[in-house]
Design goal:
11 helices, 198 residues
Length: 198
Amino acid sequence: MASPVKQTRMSANDRRDLVLAAASRAFARDGYHGTTTDAVAREAGVSQPYVVRMFGSKARLFADVFDRAMHRIMDTFEPYLDDVAADPDNDDSWHPLGVAYTELLEDRDLLLVMMHGFTSGANPEIGARARGWMSSLYTQIRSRTDCSPDQARNFIANGMLLNTLLAMQVPEHAGQDPALEELAVCAFDSLLGADAEN
């Protein structure tokens, strides 16, 4: 008789990560208002009371998902900021940071969670959190690179335009509209540098 297979019990941190990953997918797909804790539970393969017990509320769960996305973005920027700091007036010094950002945005769930967070400003808890993250992002770029306010604003503005174009799936549909195609090329080139076309 074969011995039973021993199942390893998942740690609390692993279970939390599992639910956060499922919540990221659910919130990315349906937004904050269109997602229920029940939908997150189904996505994670756990019960709805378990999700509520773990996070307390949908707002708290979304806040944790949003925080996780923003931490990932700022952590991705960190190793590239020293190169920008060496010469913030040299457009080429921003190139690796721009490339890192566009590669990060290949994670569509991350992009959409960030967008849903930034567009939920009317919700007091989420709006305050979104404003705090925008302030942190701006501060990170300004303090670590010694760039001007205009340079920091332009980098963030280009990133937000990329987010919007990607959320609308413009790259997949740009060939259907010459104006959108021109806008996408212009937007991506402004962040990635002139060699993005090559």
